[in-house]
Prior knowledge:
By secondary structure, the chain is an all-alpha fold. It is 60% helix and 0% strand. The chain has helices at residues 4-10, 14-23, 37-47, 52-66, 71-75, 79-83, 89-104, 114-121, 129-138, 151-160, 168-178, 182-195. It is globular, with a radius of gyration of 18 Å.
Amino acid sequence: MEFDDAFNHLKNDEIMSFLIDKFKKDITLIDRYETDFPKAIALLIIEQQVSFKAAITIKKRFLSLINNKNSNQILEIENDEMQSIGISHRKVDYIKNTYLFFLNNKTDYYKISQNEVVKELTKIKGVGKWTAEMFLIFILFKTNIFSKGDLALINSIKVNYNISQLSDQKLDNLIKKWSPYNTIASLLLWKSIEEKVFYKKNE
């Protein structure tokens, strides 16, 4: 996926310009792409509130556990077995809720609006706005998504923009400035915090 138009737009922001120079070759949307929607959501549920490294390990184990199984077979996996690979009791329930939901729900997520996608997915117990927004970014490839509930994004903004108190107003101004490429701005901000490379005024 080419980000040239996004980079040209975001370069008007000095800090984004710095992050583009550092990370333009390293960011992608396709590393978490998954055509199987319940599996995609299950992997996002695993990512909720755990470290980046822990999530990678647990996701690998989960993929191994469900390999070659259909939705009904995944629903039949014992809860204890899922928990044994590092998934909490609560998240096991959420993952099973997800598979059950998609068995009974035939919505075409490519044909409905972003707000409708969020509304539909958050009907699943255990799927909140953050998970739905990650689905919009990494599964539906929507290019103008910013997740205000993503702590890593907020922390990255605070450090890169040297803002200790990030008010809603300041955040909204940045989101407006980056539009219609908030997704790409988010990828850059995530990469910045992941690599611990931040903008400094005189750099």
